[in-house]
Amino acid sequence: MVHAFAPSLLAYVGAAFAEISGCFAFWAWLRLGKSPWWLLPGMLSLAVFAFLLTLVDVDFAGRAYAAYGGIYIAASLTWLWLVEGQVPERGDVIGVAVCLVGVCIILFGARGAA
């Protein structure tokens, strides 16, 4: 099962960084005074984000999106650290750990008959 999850994990991580990059382009334009030209790669990045989520190997979009939330949180704090130069605090790390446990429960938890 872990082997089958690897491509989905890569899609999730790629989607997270594509979404964060796309949103950051808007942040840079509106909050940092960057050129509106930042919006073009930002919108392309957001389209890549949406595409990558379709590559996740789950049966339902809602489950893919729910699990993605935890990956997004981890990626956001990685962005905070690597791009913005702010080291995540203890509470951030604990929060990410809790979210990633939730991701595992969503993706690998037992499924009952409906």
From TrEMBL:
InterPro entries: EmrE-like, UPF0060. The chain crosses the membrane at residues 9-30, 36-58, 65-82, 94-113. It is found in: Cell membrane. Keywords: Cell membrane, Membrane, Transmembrane, Transmembrane helix. Pfam families: UPF0060 (PF02694). It is a multi-pass membrane protein. The keyword Iron does not apply. GO terms for cellular component: plasma membrane. The keyword Transmembrane helix applies. Signal peptide: none annotated. Its main location: membrane. Belongs to the UPF0060 family. This is Uncharacterized protein.
